[in-house]
Design goal:
A: two-stranded antiparallel sheet; two-stranded antiparallel ribbon; 20 helices; globular; disordered C terminus; B: 2 domains; 10 strands; about 25% helix; elongated; binds iron/sulfur cluster
Chain lengths: ~475, ~180
């Protein structure tokens, strides 16, 4: 254990720094850890692209679809829940830039007007829309092209512009991870604030010879929380005093106060970040809705109403309803009740921009329930896919004939209970956060301020439990 | 009378949860995604893929078929001859229905009311202007939906422990307002 000095910790676990532990410490301080992880995932990505473009085009029989939409997503949420933003840490899309930047230096500056999350919000919404419209989970070829497009976009933007604007402002996966990591148990943080106070070089931010500083423009001394942190570890390697570590904190506690955050500002005054959280939360419900039977009835009904056989207007209407109208109605209603019951006079939007962050644990619970359901129920599905690949490549079943009946990693009767567990835990976390905010706002009558948000969180949780209990449609096979 | 919103909220939430579980349960049909049984296999002139959702009482087989890379003609039908491996029932034949959603992919769904768990054999026949194709395979019928069996409820223990820790942590952090408050 190594203490954080300069600021008194709120609890003893905040003083635990895993970079001071044996084995893990040297590992995280090893300068090539990130590139090694990136290279590993790059090789995996190359195999996925190759199989996606040249392999069988039935989704459950192709590595591109099974690994991308089933294993990768499962690992991402597991890592967010147990560690932090591990995918960004090991992001393969960033690796090709390493050899390139020896030849060409990024010179352009990202336009000031684009320095917000709005583009990221639109891209994440567009990604979710395209996922449903083009049935990406069912198409190995399209999945492969999505991976290729990702490499091209990351390389172009981060290769041309200084810093890492693709990660900070555009990348849909990154935005998802930033929000998810708000309730992760670990955070990259300073070990001793007194050292920072006397530091003259600020290398964690600026970088030094042969080691870049924070490309996400987070200055350790003033950094707070996980928003925008890719866990790239650059600051850990750059600090000449070894003063940056990876510390435990209470998940979600960064959301019940509005500190000034380096490179981010104040969350409660960032409508773009608030919109990202709305998308994260309601998008989770929409994504789960997209895989159960009632969605087909709704789509067919809307198609009849619009007199169309084309899917995009129908899907567009569902998206606008679920991601704009529904949140506006529910959050607006809760904020209105909050004002009425607590007697506080303030604009509705100010209330929403504060309490919307209480929904993050619930949103994460829904994503986790959904992704881990597929992850666990189809975990061994990768075995027959690899067996099939070997048969196709060599003409011989060296690894045995494909066992298409392989699937769950846990007994199937556990799956619904586990899903319920994640939903309940997320709901609980949201209630805790909402109560903390309510107590801060109205200390004399916190229950009155809390009640509307508890109602909202309760309604959302019930909707998700109902969704979970619906029959899964065929597309569920393909990991909706 | 003093307004006691806390107990009221808790009671309402519990009631709503019980109501949703009660209403939702009958709608539930499967504890997992349908299993892929056959992947793009030749059956006469057809190429077929089969998935099974083999719940006792409410089993479903999903069949996607193409002929020469195109959708099968509208007159095409799918039937499934089904019998239990242990012979406790005579064989029975079920006819598939073709999905007619304007937006969804074309497929046949055959409902098979397996009456018991265990291995069942299925002989699937697809008939149409392109000819006849047949395949035989086995599926293992799984228990009818029991999402919250007593044993599976044990899975909730870690979640309850984390929830308690979270609550304890939040109290502890708030009892120490001069700290970082992280
Ligand atoms: S370089 Fe190290 S000591 Fe200096 S400000 Fe950054 S973290 Fe603090
Ligand atoms: S603070 Fe910056 S340099 Fe440090 S891990 Fe996060 S993104 Fe990387």
């Amino acid at each position: 254990m190594s203490g954080i000095r300069g600021v008194r910790p709120a609890a003893e676990w905040e003083a635990v720094d895993i970079t001071a532990w044996p084995v893990l410490g040297p590992l995280f301080r090893w300068r090539h850890l990130r590139s090694a992880l990136q290279l590993l995932l790059l090789l995996v990505a190359l195999v996925l692209v190759w199989d996606g473009l040249t392999g069988p085009q039935l989704a459950p029989t192709n590595l591109a679809t099974t690994v991308t939409w089933l294993h990768y997503r499962g690992f991402v949420v597991l890592a967010l829940l147990a560690f932090g933003n591990a995918f960004c840490m090991a992001c393969p899309f960033m690796w090709p830039r390493l050899p390139l930047e020896r030849l060409v230096r990024a010179r352009l500056v990202w336009p000031r007007s684009l320095r917000s999350k709005w583009a990221g919000v639109l891209l994440l919404a567009a990604f979710l829309f395209a996922y449903e419209l083009f049935d990406l989970w069912a198409s190995p070829r399209w999945t492969a092209w999505v991976i290729v497009a990702y490499f091209a976009a990351a390389l172009t933007v981060n290769g041309l512009f200084r810093g890492a604007p693709f990660c900070k402002y555009l990348c849909p996966i990154g935005q998802f991870n930033f929000v998810g990591s708000l309730i992760s148990p670990l955070e990259i943080a300073v070990r001793d604030h007194n050292v920072c106070a006397s530091c003259t070089t600020k290398d964690c931010f600026r970088g030094r010879e042969g080691q870049r500083g924070c490309e996400l423009w987070l200055f350790q001394e003033k950094k707070y929380g996980n928003m925008d942190c890719t866990f790239c570890l650059d600051c850990i390697h750059a600090c000449p005093h070894g003063n940056v570590g990876i510390r435990f904190r209470l998940p979600g506690s960064e959301l019940w106060q509005d500190r000034l955050r380096s490179g981010v500002g104040r969350l409660w005054r960032r409508p773009d970040v608030g919109a990202l959280v709305v998308l994260f939360t309601f998008g989770a419900l929409l994504n789960a809705f997209g895989m159960v039977s009632p969605v087909y009835a709704l789509e067919a009904w809307l198609a009849g109403l619009l007199g169309t056989t084309s899917e995009w207007p129908v899907l567009g209407l569902i998206f606008v309803g679920a991601l704009v109208v529904e949140p506006a109605f529910l959050l607006g209603g809760a904020a209105w009740l909050f004002r009425a019951w607590s007697g506080r006079e303030e604009p509705l939007i100010a209330v929403i921009m504060r309490y919307v962050y209480a929904l993050v644990p619930f949103g994460m619970g829904v994503w986790s329930a959904h992704y881990l359901f597929h992850f666990l129920s189809g975990f061994w599905g990768v075995v027959p896919v690899v067996q099939n690949l070997v048969v196709e490549l060599t003409g011989s079943p060296w690894l045995g004939m494909p066992r298409w009946d392989l699937g769950p990693a846990v007994p199937v009767e556990w799956l619904n209970t586990l899903e319920l567990g994640f939903i309940a835990l997320g709901t609980w976390g949201s209630l805790l956060l909402a109560y903390r905010l309510a107590r801060r706002d109205v200390p004399q009558a916190p229950w009155r301020a809390f009640a509307p948000w508890a109602l909202l969180i309760g309604v959302l949780a019930l909707v998700d439990v109902w969704l979970m209990l619906q029959p899964m449609e065929m597309r569920g096979t393909f990991l909706a | 009378m003093r307004w006691r919103i806390g107990p009221l909220l808790t009671a309402t939430a519990l009631f709503a949860l019980v109501a949703v579980l009660a209403v939702g349960r009958p709608a539930s049909a499967h504890s997992g995604a349908p299993l892929l049984i056959l992947a793009e296999q030749a059956a006469g002139p057809y190429t077929i893929s089969v998935w099974a959702d083999p719940d006792v009482g409410n089993g479903r087989l999903f069949v996607e078929a193409t002929v020469g890379g195109a959708q099968v003609p509208p007159e095409t039908t799918v039937t499934a001859r089904v019998w239990p491996d242990d012979g406790h029932l005579p064989e029975a034949t079920y006819t598939g229905t073709r999905t007619s959603s304007p937006l969804g992919p074309e497929r046949f769904t055959v409902r098979v009311p397996f009456d018991a768990e265990g291995v069942w054999w299925v002989q699937l026949a697809i008939r149409g202007p392109a000819g006849l194709g047949e395949v035989t395979f086995s599926v293992t019928a799984t228990p009818a939906e029991s999402p919250f069996s007593v044993a599976s409820l044990l899975c909730l223990a870690p979640f309850a422990a984390i929830a308690a820790l979270w609550w304890w942590g939040a109290r502890r952090v708030s009892a120490n307002p001069r700290g970082t408050g992280r």
